[in-house]
Design goal:
Pfam families: Ribosomal_L23. This protein is an alpha+beta fold. Helix content is 23%, strand content 36%. The strands form two sheets. The chain has a four-stranded antiparallel β-sheet. Strands 4-5 form a two-stranded antiparallel ribbon. The longest helix is centred in the middle third of the chain and has 12 residues.
Length: 96
C-alpha cells in the first residue's frame, strides 16, 4: 500500500480554490494513478477530517515552444475534496 503522502502531492492555491474554501471544498494535486477512494483515505489520515465527496479531473499538459521546438508540460490530476458539514476545516489553509 502506498503512503498517503505519495497520493496527495500538494495543495493547489488559486483564486477559485480559495473562494471554494468557504463552501468546505479544498483542491489538491494528486498522483495520476490514484482513485477517489485512495484520495479520500489519504486526506482523512493526513489531516484528520471527514471527507464527504471527491471530484477528480485529469489536466492535460500545455503545449510550449522554444523556437522551432515544440514540447508539452507534464499532465497531472486534480482533486476537489468536499468536507462533511460537521468536519472542521483543514488547518493547512487557515492563514491564507
Amino acid at each position: 500500500m502506498r503512503s498517503p503522502h505519495d497520493i496527495i502531492r500538494k495543495p493547489l492555491v488559486t483564486e477559485k480554490s480559495m473562494s471554494d474554501m468557504s463552501e468546505g471544498k479544498y483542491t489538491f494535486v494528486v498522483d495520476k494513478s490514484a482513485n477517489k477512494t485512495e484520495i479520500k483515505n489519504a486526506l482523512e489520515k493526513i489531516f484528520g477530517v471527514k471527507v464527504e465527496k471527491v471530484n477528480t479531473m485529469n489536466m492535460k499538459g500545455k503545449l510550449k515552444r522554444m523556437g522551432a521546438n515544440v514540447g508539452r508540460r507534464a499532465s497531472w490530476k486534480k482533486a476537489i475534496v468536499t468536507l462533511a458539514a460537521d468536519s472542521k476545516g483543514i488547518e493547512f489553509f487557515e492563514g491564507m
